[in-house]
Structures are given as C-alpha cells and as structure tokens.
Write a structure and sequence with these properties.
334 residues; globular; 9 helices; Metallo-beta-lactamase, Chain A; 16 strands; alpha/beta; 7-stranded mixed beta sheet
Length: 334
C-alpha cells in the first residue's frame, strides 16, 4: 500500500502542475486577446519631441485598432492632437496624457472616421477641470462635409446641438473658461516677405515651441488638409487621406523627420483602384521626393492588413528610407 502511495503522489503532483501551467497559458492568451499589453508600453519617452499613434485603423473597425488619431508630445506633455477617430479617447487615457496640457487640435477631414470621438474628448476635458480655451483647426466646407466651425456647433450648440449638455463649451454666455474655439482653415496662399526678402508661409498656429502649417491634400482645395508641425529643427508631416493628384506637396513634406501617410488601399486587388487614396507605390514616390527620414503608415484599413510584404515591396521600389507600419500606442522619435 505504501508503494502505491509513493507511486501516485508524483503523478498527482505532475497532473496539478500541468493544469496550473495550462491555466497560466490561457490567462496570458486572454491578456493578448484583450490587447492589454499595449497599456504597459503606452508611455512615450518623456524627453524631446515624440509622435504617438492613438489609432492606427480606419473606418472598418479592425480588431485591436482605433480609428486615426495621433498625439504630439514635447518634454513629456501631450501638446497637439491630430484627428480623433473612433476609440482614440480611450487610447488617450492609456497614454497617461492630460487634457490640461493640450494646446490645439488639428483635423485633416471633417468626417466620421476622423472626428467621431470629439464629444468624448471634450466631455472628459470639461469634467477633468480644464480651464483654458482649446482651439480646433480643420477644413472649410465642401459639398459633402460641413466646415469645422459648423461641425463643432452642430455637436455642442445649446439649442440645436446633438450634445446640448456640453453647450457651454461654445456658448459665449457660459461662465466656464474652458471653451472650444473652432476655426475654418483654408489652404494658406498668402505669404510674407522676411528681412532676407524671401517669401515665407504664414503658420496657422505658433507659440514658443511649435509652428504649424496646413496644406491642401485633395484635388478640391481645402476639403482635406495636411499638416506640417515644426518644433525647432524637427519636422513632422501628416498627409491625411491625401489624393493622388495633389500638387505642391514637396514644399511641405521636404526633409520631414517623420512623414505620416495613410495606408488605405493595397497595391493590388479589388480595392487597389480606389481613386481617393494613394497606392503603396505612390506613397513610396512621395516619401522619396520628400527625402523623408522616417515613413510611418497609419490609417491601416482592413483591406491592407495581412498585405504588409506586398506593401513593403511596392514602397521600397521607390523609397529606401526607414518604413514603419503604425500600431495603436506606438511611439516614434524624429
């Protein structure tokens, strides 16, 4: 009987060990499925200029990817938001960013894929105690989209807005100091003459750290915007959903430290003929002409996922620089 017990005890122990190991593996797989690891790597370096991706997906709601959105960090503080697609508000919380640090919001388009979380952001900012006004810059109206000012007022107007509980954010009669300041920003063609007698573009926004310029990103002037953000000698450029026949890009994209281009269609296949997006080979051409130091592909629609090798080959046929596919909460240093 004693020999039988000695035989069974190790077997029972091994069986329990196998069960515990299996439970641990299942738990790790569950964390991966819930996309929780991204939260552990959400913090960008707290020195210098950083670009962080809030959402790397598109309007197709790809699993694990929020819609397009980005943060510009400077010295550990979130200073600028670029686009605020679906899910970006939750990602913002994961980064540790604070609403009080934001200096401006930039929109490349006024449509659902790029602006869905605006109400969520503003509600959280108001409830979080933000006091200073927040300017929002975006496109003028087109045949299919409202202007930035009209869009903001359609959301928050106290009498006709969709979210009237936040009406004090745009009402001039409200007592709180936190106000939204929307601006329609047509493509700037005016130039000033500097002391060296050289024409210089006028920034849309500037302060002690940043100078921000917009540029046309579609064949219809002002319907889609690109943004150039300068901080000292560093340049980060967002082309948004830029269209193939957009002109005069080189003036704004030249020598970009980071060039962010939206990767919405594959090089081949049924979706590759969409005329409102750039193909990977066209993206490569733009990056080559810009002599970009880093090319970051955002807004990765469902039709492009799984085709990274094909995309890389098409881009690398034109551009030999650093190519990176964006994922949610990735950080890039210019």
């Amino acid at each position: 009987m004693q020999e039988r017990l000695l035989y069974l005890q190790p077997t029972d122990y091994n069986h329990k060990m196998k069960i515990n190991l299996r439970m641990r593996i299942n738990f790790i797989l569950l964390l991966l499925a819930l996309n929780l690891p991204a939260a552990f790597g959400a913090q960008c370096p707290d020195q210098g200029l950083q670009l962080q991706v809030l959402g790397s997906g598109g309007s197709s709601l790809s699993p694990g990817r929020a819609g397009p959105g980005y943060i510009i960090w400077y010295q550990g503080h979130a200073r600028i938001l670029v686009d605020i697609g679906p899910g970006t508000a939750m990602r913002f919380r994961k980064t540790g960013a604070r609403f009080n640090d934001l200096e401006t919001v930039l929109l490349t388009q006024v449509n659902s894929a790029h602006t869905t979380d605006l109400a969520a952001f503003m509600s959280a900012a108001a409830n979080g105690g933000r006091l200073q006004p927040l300017p929002i810059y975006g496109p003028v109206a087109s045949k299919t989209t409202p202007s930035t000012v009209s869009f903001v007022r359609s959301l928050f107007d106290q009498k006709r807005g969709a979210f009237r509980d936040l009406g004090s954010l745009v009402s001039p009669l409200g007592t709180q100091t936190f106000k939204l300041k929307p601006h329609n920003t047509p493509v700037v063609s005016k130039k000033i003459v500097t002391g060296e007698n050289k024409n210089t573009n006028i920034p849309i926004f500037s302060n002690a750290i940043f100078k921000i310029y917009n540029f046309n990103a579609s064949d219809k002037k002002g319907e889609k915007l690109g943004w150039l953000i300068k901080a000292g000698t560093k340049k980060i450029v967002f082309t948004g959903d830029i269209q193939p026949n957009t002109k005069n890009l080189k003036d704004f994209t030249s020598n970009a430290d980071i060039l962010v281009v939206h990767h919405a269609i594959p090089e081949s296949g049924p979706n590759s003929t969409e005329k409102i997006f750039l193909s990977p080979s066209a993206i490569g051409s733009i990056a080559y002409k810009a002599q970009a130091r880093q090319l970051v592909l955002g807004h990765r629609r469902f039709v492009t996922l799984g085709k990274e090798k094909e995309t890389t080959a098409a881009i690398k046929s034109k551009f030999s620089g650093l190519l990176q596919f964006a994922n949610d909460l990735d950080c890039f240093t210019p």
